[in-house]
Amino acid sequence: MQYLLLIYGNEAQWDTKNEAERNTILQEYMQFTKSIVQSGHYRGGNELNVTSTATTVRVRDKKQVVTDGPFAETKEQLGGYYLIEAKDLDDVLGVAARIPTARWGSIEVRPIIPHDMPS
Amino acid sequence: MDIERIFREESGRILASLIRLLGSFELAEEVMQEAFTAAVEQWPKEGIPANPRAWLVSTAQHKAVDLLRRRERFESKREELQKIAELEQQLAGTQENMLRGLNHDDPHDHDPFGDDRLRLIFTCCHPALALEAQVALTLRTLCGLSTDEIARGFLVPLPTMAQRLVRAKQKIRDARIPYQVPPEQQLGERLEAVMLVVYLVFNEGYSANSGDTAIRQELCAEAIRLGRLLCQLLPGQNEAQALLALMLLHDSRRSARVDAKGEPVLLEEQNRSLWNQEEIREGLELVESALRAGGAGPYALQAAIAAVHGRAAHAEKTDWRQIVALYEVLLRVQPSPVVELNHAAAVAMADGPAAGLRLIDDLEAKAQLREYYLLPAARGDLLRRLQRWERAADSYRRALSLVTNEVARGFLARRLAEVESRL
């Protein structure tokens, strides 16, 4: 069964970190990713650029409306994700708890609903 | 033995086993109902089987195969077909195992269903479910209480409770909350969540402010039953033993806690000859063994406090110094304003009302309990004992403005009238 782990953190906090601190965290992420590749949990994942680079699109009355920024302003922002294959919720929670950002931000764990690819 | 009682007592075990065998909450509930219906039809004619539980489990399994076959005819899904094959294989094997387990004459009451119930309680009390859903699901599945009974027990409208249960089961299925006893390194933390649910069920039954009497007693009895189950299935867990002790020691006072008019009777004023000595004896044994193990946790300390009361044949013989000492340890282990308030009340008993009053003043300054009616109620009580009638009346009035519980309101109103008559 697959789950999407949505990684939420405070971007403003990230900005206050110096080069060395950021490198330490990146190293941790590298090691973590390696470990879940080895354990067979990893199906995909990416870091996302900051919300100031985000653009939101809506189509209303057949008209495309484009606005700057994410859909909602929140204290914590979506900063990345992992797609995980896991046996059950306990299994995936164990993975989520090891994501470095879990220590200061939060990880939302969402089960994926499988759909067949249209042929 | 009547059929109703068998259903009531066995449904938790049967459902737990069926969930494991079928891998689905909903399917298990559905076919258990069908098996019960079959029993109601067949047992009066053919007699109650030698092993009703085994009969019900295997009947439900057959019903599950039938049900999946019927569905398969319409949907012919690969998964369903696979499930049916698995089930049929299981049917042959499990019946054999089950009979072996049940015929097995184990002096320790070996129970082949035990592990299933333990798995189920950890699923129902999974922290990924909201606490209120954990409580409802535990009562519904492990205790076999009806949705209506649970709704009445917790003063929640029936549709709300029904929806809460449906949502919880959907989450178990869709997020795949596992059906297993957590691994050793998580057991402590997860057991804490289970114990909290059990204790919540007990308190809901024990507190005077909710539901009708019959349901309340049922909740206490079920909580104690779950407490026993935890002790039996997880031997060596001291806090589980202590929780059972705590519940037994409180429950022992049940007949003395309310008078003939249904009004609450304070601990000091209770007729202790009405206390259930059997429960006290068992509670004391459990708490002593939990304390001997060392490193007393919050349940062990609360049970130890209840045990001091349980040992006192008269209110005047209560060892308040020991109670104060136990509250002081509890404050270190699990600090909370409510524990501080109880500590202050115990100090008032040990060292006099003035000493208690000083502690209550400190607590009021902290403001966490500003909306908690028991704080001014406790203050009023101490002022009353110091015969400072006017200030006592003020405190009781303040308590009355905060209280929501009708029974407590009546009690406070009587105290206020008593104090006002002295003015």
CATH topology of chain A: Alpha-Beta Plaits
Count of separate DSSP helical elements of chain A = 3
- What structural class should be given to the helix and strand makeup of chain B? mainly alpha
Number of structural units classed as domains of chain B: 3
Taking the alpha carbons of the first and last residues of chain B, their distance comes to 62 Å
How confident is the prediction overall: mean pLDDT of chain A? 94
Query: Would you identify the CATH architecture of chain A?
Result: 2-Layer Sandwich
Following the backbone from N to C, one meets helices and strands of chain B in this order, namely HHHHHHHHHHHHHHHHHHHH
**Roughly how many Å apart are the termini of chain A?**
22 Å
Identify the strand order in the major beta sheet of chain A. 2-5-1-6
Helix/strand class of chain A: alpha+beta
User: What share of residues are in beta strands of chain B?
Assistant: under 5%
What letter string, H or E per element, gives the SSE order of chain A?
Answer: EHHEEEEHE
Instruction: Report helical residue fraction of chain B.
Output: over 70%
**Biggest chain-to-chain interface with counts:** A-B, 9 and 10 residues
Separate helix tally of chain B: 20
Summarize this, please?
The complex is a heterodimer of chains A (119) and B (423). Chain A has 119 residues and is an alpha+beta fold. Chain A has 3 helices and 6 strands.
Describe the protein in words.
The complex is a heterodimer of chains A (119) and B (423). Chain A is α+β, with helices and mostly antiparallel strands. Chain A has one domain: Dimeric alpha+beta barrel (Alpha-Beta Plaits, 2-Layer Sandwich), CATH 3.30.70. In chain A, 28% of the residues lie in helices and 34% in strands. In chain A, the strands form two sheets. Chain A has a four-stranded antiparallel β-sheet with strand order 2-5-1-6. In chain A, strands 3-4 form a two-stranded antiparallel ribbon. In chain A, a hairpin with a 2-residue loop joins strand 3 and strand 4. The radius of gyration of chain A is 16 Å and the shape is flat. Helices cover 74% and strands 0% of the residues of chain B. Chain B is mostly helical and 423 residues long. Chain B folds into three domains: 3-104; 113-258 and 272-290, no CATH class; 317-423, Alpha Horseshoe (Serine Threonine Protein Phosphatase 5, Tetratricopeptide repeat), CATH 1.25.40. Chain B is built from 20 helices and no strands. The interface between A and B is small, with 9 and 10 residues.
